[in-house]
Design brief:
By secondary structure, the chain is α/β, with parallel strands linked by helices. The protein has a domain at about 210-365: 2-Layer Sandwich (Dihydrodipicolinate Reductase, domain 2). It contains 14 helices and 13 strands. The chain has helices spanning about 5-15, 20, 45-50, 55-60, 90-100, 135-145, 160-165, 200, 210-220, 255, 270-280, 310-320, 335-340, 370-385; strands spanning about 80-85, 105-110, 150-155, 175, 190, 205-210, 235-240, 260-265, 285-290, 295-305, 325-330, 345-350, 360-365. The protein has a 7-stranded mixed beta sheet. It has a 6-stranded parallel beta sheet with strand order 2-1-3-4-6-5, with helices on one face. Helix 5 (about 90-100) crosses helix 14 (about 370-385). The chain is globular and about 65 Å long. It starts with 6 loop residues before the first helix and ends in an 11-residue tail after the last helix. Bound molecules: NADP nicotinamide-adenine-dinucleotide phosphate (NAP). One of its GO terms (biological process) is L-arginine biosynthetic process.
């Protein structure tokens, strides 16, 4: 069993987190498009490319990523944090419980579900926990009593506001997995550590986790934004049915999905807005659902503003993500079956057409891992003062 921590220790731990914030993030490149103020981008790529290969290797590792991982530099807190999880029965809640169970510093204390109220939590071995059906008032009381350091909301869109409101100005960390605060810059940080300044996330007490499609799409588009042509890039996305959550709907109806590919929300999907909002350029997103359980495949058609080669483009991505442990740049288009159960994103393909002014980039992501629970844990690690990748199985 893990030992208890006091609120004072937790707050103290948060207070030392800014130590990590002193890590220098390379200067922003000229913002090509719109409001990309939070999102870091490629820099000095041409300079990197003109170096000798040995010099370039070390340059790539050290300098081409303007927002390098904080990794162990973020580890300033040696005391476990107590976690409360609201929406624990769902797919993302369960994926997070598995990760917390293996994490040396996360001490799950409360799990809330209306359906499982009174039952014992299975699959968590660090202590015995019984599901509760916590109201916003009960959450606020537990928080006031100093029983929890971090609240995770794994609730459907539009449900968590009463909980967040009840917590008010609490100094506890709140991480929301829904879309409710993803467009609210005043609420807190948008928790996409590879693209948003990690030091900002590390200092936040309110973090909104990006959507699953939106994480994969932004990671697959951000490095090439500077070279985006006039027409919007189009993301063709296919998700396994766990992306639709546990509430029965056509999108998780296994019989309907068998031998089938289901197009839905073909314009105006919330992730179309999210990707466009955070990248600062309009992006077209056409989602589909299919019969596998977990994993997303994205095929992205990107018009370019100049002639480029596949090799140039792949190099830009490799440079941008140098040192990242959860983003892998590969040559071939990645397969969704290879990403299932994995914790990162794979980006590849980089097929350029005969004009040299259009590239197709492919990406895969496990929607429940880097698309939800793994990214949530990465953000928790950053904001609670642990090593950025602690408890995340890295390949
Ligand atoms: N699934 C994904 O791939 C994915 C990826 C990224 C982000 N997300 C986002 O993460 C959130 C959770 O997704 P999920 O797939 O885990 O959903 P889910 O499987 O449908 O689970 C939803 C959870 O919320 C609880 N819940 C539902 N309505 C509630 C209400 N009115 N009041 C209190 N609790 C309620 C449910 O438990 P009880 O009914 O037992 O209370 C359950 O634990 C969603 O906002 C989703 O958009 C999902």
């Amino acid at each position: 069993m893990l030992s208890a921590t006091s609120g004072a220790v937790r707050i103290g731990a948060r207070r030392v987190a800014p130590r990590a914030a002193s890590v220098v993030v390379a200067p922003m490149p000229k913002a090509p498009l719109g409001r990309i103020t939070n999102i870091t981008n490629i820099t000095n790529i041409a300079q990197a490319r003109s170096l000798s290969s040995t010099a370039r290797l070390s340059y790539a590792i050290n300098n081409t990523n303007p927002n390098p991982p904080l990794g162990e530099k973020n580890a300033s807190n040696e005391t476990p944090s107590r976690i409360g999880l609201i929406g624990a029965r769902g797919y993302t809640g369960q994926a997070l419980i598995d990760l917390l169970n293996a994490h040396p510093n996360m001490d799950l204390r409360h799990v809330s579900s209306r359906e499982l109220n009174g039952q014992e939590l299975k699959g968590y071995t660090k202590r015995k926990i019984i599901y509760e059906n916590l109201s916003p008032e009960e959450v606020a009381q537990l928080d006031k009593d100093g029983k929890v350091d971090c609240w995770v909301m794994a609730l459907p869109n539009g449900v968590c506001q009463p909980f967040v409101q009840a917590l008010g100005q609490s100094s506890s960390l709140i991480i929301d997995l829904s879309a409710d605060y993803r467009f609210d810059d005043a609420w807190g940080s948008y928790g996409l550590p590879e693209l948003v300044q990690r030091s900002k996330i590390a200092q936040s007490t309110r973090i909104s986790c990006p959507g699953c499609y939106a994480t994969g799409s932004q990671l697959a588009l951000a490095p090439i934004l500077e070279h985006l042509g006039a027409a919007p890039a189009t993301v063709f996305g296919v998700s396994g049915y766990s992306g639709a959550g546990t509430k029965p709907s056509p999108k998780n109806d296994v019989k309907l999905l068998h031998d089938n590919l289901m197009p839905y929300s073909l314009t105006g999907h919330i992730h179309e807005r999210e990707i466009s909002h955070h990248l600062g350029v309009p992006i077209a997103f056409i989602p589909h659902c299919s019969s596998w359980f977990r994993g997303i495949s994205l095929t992205i058609n990107i018009p370019l503003n100049k002639t480029m080669t596949s090799r140039d483009i792949r190099q830009i991505y490799q440079d941008r993500y140098a040192g990242e442990k959860l983003v892998k740049v590969v040559s071939e288009a990645p397969f969704v079956k290879s990403i299932q159960g994995k914790h990162g994103v794979e980006i590849g393909g980089f097929a350029v057409d005969s004009t040299g002014k259009r590239v197709v980039v492919c990406a895969t992501i496990d929607n429940l891992n880097k698309g939800a629970a793994t990214q949530c844990l990465q953000n928790m690690n950053l904001a609670l003062g642990y090593g950025e990748y602690q408890g995340i199985p890295i390949e």
